[in-house]
Amino acid sequence: MSKVAVIGGGIGGLTAALLLSKQRVEVTLYERSTKLGGRIAFEEEGPYRIDQGPTIVLLPEMLHSILEEAGIARERIELLRCDPLYRIHYRSGKVLTKRAGRQEQSAEIENVFPGEKGI
């Protein structure tokens, strides 16, 4: 059996470890943080969950594809739609809300930065 070390327990490292282990490779995962997940990790306080790094937006079909390739049934993983995704606060005082839908995001950009939605 092959042995591999994966450095970093973010989405990339976790995906690599998952797919390698599916190929019967012995994987040791090294992560400097006390939590796995990198930008997909979260903090919990009571009933609230807050993303540690909301700048990563995973495409659900891509995630399902990776899990299916690793032999994990789609039904075992529940993905929750998050909208709005996050807000960006500019020094000027403007606030841009990142929306999940393309039309909603386009309207948001036009509202906050008129004339720039096509950029």
Automatic annotation (TrEMBL):
<protein>
    <submittedName>
        <fullName>Squalene synthase</fullName>
    </submittedName>
</protein>
<dbReference type="Pfam" id="PF13450">
    <property type="entry name" value="NAD_binding_8"/>
</dbReference>
<dbReference type="InterPro" id="IPR036188">
    <property type="entry name" value="FAD/NAD-bd_sf"/>
</dbReference>
